[in-house]
From TrEMBL:
Species whose genome carries this gene: Saccharothrix yanglingensis
Organism ancestry: Bacteria, Bacillati, Actinomycetota, Actinomycetes, Pseudonocardiales
Residues of the signal peptide: none
Catalytic function, reaction form: 4-amino-2-methyl-5-(phosphooxymethyl)pyrimidine + ATP = 4-amino-2-methyl-5-(diphosphooxymethyl)pyrimidine + ADP; 4-amino-5-hydroxymethyl-2-methylpyrimidine + ATP = 4-amino-2-methyl-5-(phosphooxymethyl)pyrimidine + ADP + H(+)
Positions of the Pyridoxamine kinase/Phosphomethylpyrimidine kinase domain: 16-254
Pathway terms, separated by semicolons: Cofactor biosynthesis; thiamine diphosphate biosynthesis; 4-amino-2-methyl-5-diphosphomethylpyrimidine from 5-amino-1-(5-phospho-D-ribosyl)imidazole: step 3/3
Descriptive protein name: Bifunctional hydroxymethylpyrimidine kinase/phosphomethylpyrimidine kinase
Length: 265
């Protein structure tokens, strides 16, 4: 009997103690589409659905140790880069990924769904210089795309096209909220990414889920365009099914149908 090869997605980012976003959200999103998730922690946040109260950064050497150790044994089919906090961390992660030979999804997390800042001041230039060239696709939200392009107030289509002009192979600018309005661009053109809008108040982790799903679908062999379109639909489903009894702020998305399962007893 032949055993099908398990696809492995690696997420490089930070822990969300609230469990809905960051590394914890990524693991659930990747698992929801049948991917094994390996994790490299760059930082730890003290966070819940109402905001971030503290953070701890993992020393750069230990980020490298985690990355080398995973790659030496497990290997990966695609990589996501999430919240990386400092320029020094961005530099070392980008350098390692430049030789990884697998798709790289960069979700340059700087602003949470609850509005908290998750980036050091020095990070924007470093993301532009180091991560754009290794990115198969960038997945910023609108605020992050404005920061990265330096064009505040520009429409999502222009932001996505500008990110590609700045060196990313492809970019999707997400817009959150019920109205949507996300745009994708790559070297071949641009299109609006369709999705339904939901007003459940369960968007915590939506951006993380979206980029983690893109990563997992690339690990399964989908094209970048197909992975983005499908991930957008699935992340929207996660908001629709969100866990509205969890937390008093922006509730977490749910990709595992936890809120719809019958109790085991
Ligand atoms: N109200 C909503 N209704 C339906 N889908 C949504 C909603 N909010 C978010 N989504 C889904 O989540 C995805 C990411 O949304 P959003 O722009 O809110 O991410 P973010 O958390 O701001 O991103 P980042 O991780 O880059 O900071 C969207 O592309 C969409 O698929
Ligand atoms: C550690 C960590 N990483 C990323 C996010 C972004 O969350 P969202 O997906 O809601 O934008 C977060 N809140 N915390």
């Amino acid at each position: 009997m032949t055993v099908a090869r398990t696809r492995v997605a690696l997420t490089i980012g930070s822990s969300d103690s609230g469990g809905g976003a960051g590394i914890q959200g990524d693991i659930k999103a990747m698992a929801s589409v049948g991917c094994y998730a390996a994790t490299v922690l760059v930082g730890v946040t003290a966070q819940n659905t109402t905001g971030v109260t503290g953070r701890f950064t993992v020393p750069v050497d230990f980020v490298v140790a985690q990355l080398d150790t995973v790659l030496a044994d497990i290997g990966v089919d695609a990589v996501k880069v999430g919240m990386t906090w400092s320029a020094a961390h961005v530099e070392v992660v980008a350098q390692k990924l430049s030789t990884a030979g697998v798709p790289v999804v960069v979700d340059p997390v700087m602003v949470t769904a609850a509005g908290a800042s998750l980036a050091g001041d020095d990070i924007v230039g470093e993301v532009r210089r180091r991560l754009f060239p290794v990115a198969t696709v960038m997945t910023p939200n609108r605020a992050e795309a404005e920061l990265l392009t330096g064009i505040p107030g520009a429409p999502p289509r222009e932001l996505a096209e500008r990110l590609v002009a700045l060196g990313a192979r492809a970019a999707v600018v997400t817009c959150g909220g019920a109205d949507g309005g996300e745009w994708f661009a790559d070297g071949a053109g641009a299109f609006a990414v369709p999705r339904p809008g939901h007003r459940t108040g369960a968007e915590h982790g939506a951006g993380c889920a979206h980029s983690a799903l893109v990563t997992a679908l690339l690990a399964h062999g989908l094209s970048t365009r197909d992975a983005v379109v499908r991930a957008t639909e699935l992340a929207a489903d996660g908001v629709r099914d969100g866990l509205v009894t969890v937390g008093r702020g922006v509730h977490p998305v749910d990709l595992l149908a936890l809120g719809h399962r019958s109790p085991p007893v």
